[in-house]
Design goal:
By secondary structure, the protein is mainly α. It folds into three domains: 225 residues, Serine Threonine Protein Phosphatase 5, Tetratricopeptide repeat; 55 residues, no CATH class; 37 residues. The protein is built from 15 helices and three strands. The protein has a three-stranded antiparallel beta sheet with strand order 2-1-3. The longest helix is centred in the middle third of the chain and has 16 residues. The two termini are 26 Å apart.
C-alpha cells in the first residue's frame, strides 16, 4: 500500500513505511550465511572487513554492521530490525600459537637462517584479500530490503556517490556489481527509471544475482508495474527461496493486481520466514479486509502495529477494517493515529479525514 493510491487499492508502502523487522537471534545457517551479506555498514557507510572487524549481521536482510554501529543505533540501519543472527569477532591466535611465536622470536634473536624459517613456519595462513566495492564479485547473497523514495534533489554527498558509481560503470562496464550499486543509489534518490535500467544491465551481465531481480521487482511494484514486479520477484525467489522480502513484495504486487488469495499466500510465506516483518503483516491484513474478512484484517493490522508502532499504513488499515465492521470508536482512534504519523503530502490524508467526518470524529 503505497501513498498515492486510493485506500481500497492497498498500495504496498507509504512514506512512513520503512520498517523491516527481523526474526529473533538464531544460529547462523548454511542456507542463510552472514558471510554473504553486504560488505558496507549501512549505519556509517564504511566497509566491513568480514575477517578483521567486529561485526554483526541483521536477522532479516543480513546486512553486516560494525558492532559499535549496531550498539549505537540498537537496530539495523538498513531495515530497522531489532535483532541479529551472527556476531563476529576478529580472529585471534590461540595460546599455543602465541607461545610458539614467542619461542621462535627468542630463537630468532640469536640470529641464523634456520630461525627465520621457523618464524615463517609459525605464521598463520594469509587471509584472503578484502574485496572492495570496485572489485567485488557478483556473489549470490540476500540483499537488504529497499526503501521507497520519491524523486528529489540530491545532496552534495549523494551527487558525489553517484559520480563515483558512474565512474565505476565506465571503468568496469563488464561487472554486474557496479551496475547493481548504481541502481541502488538511483533507487535511493528517487530516479526510478534509471534504477530499473541499471538493475536490468546487472541482470544482463549476471542473471544469477537475486539482489538485482529483487530490487528491480521492488521498483516496478512501487511504479505500478505489478506483473513485471511479480515476474522479477519470482526469479529472485527461485535464486534465494528464503528471501522474505521477495515473497513480501510479490504478495503486495498480487494484492494490487486484485489477486487476494495469491497475495495472502505470498505474504504468509514472508511472515513464516521473517515473523517480525511488519509490512507483511499490514499488507496481509489489508488483503483480508479487501475480501471482507474483518477479524483477520484487524488481527494482522494489530500485529503490525505491535511490531512497528510508527507504521502509519497499519493504523489506517485497522481503522478501515474497524470502520467497515461497525467498531466506531476504534476506527476513530486508528484514523487519528494515522493522521498523527502521516506527512502533509500523504494522499491518504484526505480519504481518512472524510472517513473521520462520517464517523463524527473530526477534530
Amino acid at each position: 500500500m503505497k501513498c498515492g493510491k486510493p485506500l481500497t487499492t492497498a498500495k504496498g508502502v507509504c512514506a512512513a513505511c520503512t520498517a523491516r523487522p527481523t526474526p529473533g537471534p538464531v544460529a547462523e545457517r548454511e542456507d542463510v550465511r552472514a558471510a554473504n551479506s553486504p560488505n558496507r555498514c549501512p549505519f556509517c557507510h564504511e566497509d566491513v572487513n568480514k575477517e578483521t572487524d567486529e561485526w554483526v549481521a541483521c536477522g532479516a536482510c543480513l546486512a553486516r554492521h560494525h558492532r559499535s554501529c549496531w550498539t549505537e543505533s540498537d537496530t539495523c540501519a538498513a531495515c530497522r530490525a531489532k535483532e541479529f543472527v551472527a556476531d563476529h569477532a576478529p580472529r585471534r591466535s590461540s595460546p599455543l600459537k602465541v607461545a610458539a611465536a614467542v619461542s621462535v622470536i627468542v630463537v630468532l634473536a640469536a640470529g641464523g637462517f634456520a630461525a627465520s624459517l621457523l618464524l615463517r613456519g609459525a605464521e598463520p595462513p594469509p587471509l584472503p584479500p578484502v574485496k572492495t566495492p570496485e572489485v567485488a564479485s557478483e556473489e549470490k547473497r540476500p540483499p537488504p530490503p529497499p526503501t521507497w523514495h520519491a524523486p528529489r534533489h540530491l545532496t552534495q554527498e549523494e551527487e558525489e556517490e553517484l559520480e563515483r558509481a558512474t565512474a565505476l560503470t565506465i571503468h568496469a562496464p563488464e561487472k554486474a556489481s557496479v551496475w547493481l550499486e548504481r541502481g541502488q543509489l538511483r533507487m535511493k534518490t528517487g530516479d526510478h527509471p534509471g534504477a530499473i535500467d541499471d538493475f536490468s544491465k546487472s541482470i544482463e551481465l549476471d542473471p544469477g544475482v537475486a539482489a538485482a531481480w529483487y530490487y528491480r521487482g521492488f521498483v516496478r511494484e512501487q511504479s505500478g508495474d505489478y506483473f513485471g514486479a511479480i515476474n522479477d520477484c519470482t526469479k529472485a525467489i527461485e535464486l534465494a527461496p528464503d528471501l522474505a522480502g521477495a515473497w513480501c513484495y510479490r504478495g503486495i504486487a498480487w494484492e494490487n493486481a486484485k489477486q487476494y488469495d495469491k497475495a495472502i499466500f505470498d505474504l504468509s510465506k514472508a511472515i513464516d520466514l521473517s515473523p517480525k516483518l511488519a509490512i507483511a503483516w499490514a499488507n496481509r491484513g489489508m488483503s483480508h479486509a479487501l475480501q471482507g474478512d474483518w477479524d483477520r484484517a484487524i488481527r494482522d493490522s494489530t500485529r503490525a502495529i505491535k511490531l512497528d508502532p510508527e507504521l502509519a499504513m497499519a493504523w489506517r488499515g485497522r481503522g478501515f477494517a474497524r470502520d467497515q465492521s461497525g467498531q466506531r470508536e476504534g476506527a476513530i482512534k486508528d484514523f487519528r493515529r494515522f493522521l498523527d504519523l502521516s506527512g502533509p503530502d500523504d494522499p491518504y490524508v484526505r480519504d481518512v479525514r472524510a472517513r473521520l467526518d462520517g464517523l463524527g470524529g473530526a477534530r
